[in-house]
Each structure stands twice: as C-alpha cells, then as structure tokens.
Amino acid sequence: MATENTEILQMHDLKPAPGAKKDRIRVGRGEGSKGKTSGRGDKGTKKRYQVRPGFEGGQLPLYMRLPKLRGFKSPFKKEFQVVNIAALNELYPNGGEITAEDLAVKGAVRKGYPVKVLGDGEATAAFTLKGVKVSASAKAKIEAAGGSVSED
Hints:
The protein is an alpha/beta fold. Helix content is 20%, strand content 13%. The protein has helices at 45-48, 62-65, 85-91, 100-106, 136-144, and strands spanning 81-84, 96-98, 115-118, 127-130, 133-134, 148-150. The strands form 2 sheets. Strands 1-3-5 form a 3-stranded parallel beta sheet. Strands 2-4-6 form a 3-stranded parallel beta sheet. It starts with 44 loop residues before the first helix and ends with a strand. One of its GO terms (molecular function) is rRNA binding. InterPro entries: Ribosomal_uL15 (IPR030878), Ribosomal_uL15/eL18 (IPR021131), Ribosomal_uL15/eL18_sf (IPR036227), Ribosomal_uL15_bac-type (IPR005749), Ribosomal_uL15_CS (IPR001196).
C-alpha cells in the first residue's frame, strides 16, 4: 500500500480568500493615498467639501422665493366662542338667565373663552344674557322677545 501524502490544515495556515481583504479608501488625503481624485470625481464644490443645506445649484432657493414677513398677528387677540340665537332656542327653550359658564356646561362653547352671541335665528323666549358679548342684531332680537342683555 502506497503512503498518501495528506496535509492537515492547521490554525496558522488559515488566511482569507484572495480578494476578500481590501484596505478602506481614505478619501481626501492627497494624491498619494488612492488615485488622483480619491473617489470624489473631478472639480466642483462636492469634491472640495459639500454643498450647504438649501443650495439648489444656483437656482433661486425656496427660502428666498417665499414671501417675507407679511402682516402681523397680535399675541393678545381675543378669540370669541360664537353662539347664535337659534342655538340658544334649542338649549334654553323656556328662556332664562344665561352666562358663559352655563353655555360651557351645556357644551355649546369651550370653557375659559369669551363668548359672543350672534343674531342668526329668531328669539322665541325671553333670554337674560349676563357676561357675554352680543351683536347689535342679536341684542335687538332678544330685547324684542322680552329679554335683556348685560355685558359685564
């Protein structure tokens, strides 16, 4: 029987497959590191560094195309909750005294905001409004139906 020359693979014989291990490209470290342009192409801002955010290649940028400072918004503006006379007729069919708190409890307005009553609809009962703003047409209709308004 002929002796077979079998080589046993050992730990110190292991090495990666050819082409599996490559050095990483150190971009922008001069011509000697890896090729003339270091994988950045040729010429222009992107080669040298990077373009700034919002730059559109020389086209007028969006932030300059949009209008600047139009108008004014007062931080002290009062937002009134609006209720029409027609809604008061549904909520208070028999009339009575009405305040902003009562309207908030019934769900007609949100709590903590000033309320204004507008004149859409006809007053069918005598409403006594206290602590709410009232338009001129609403005031005339409520007083014609026998109600009263006090804007305290």
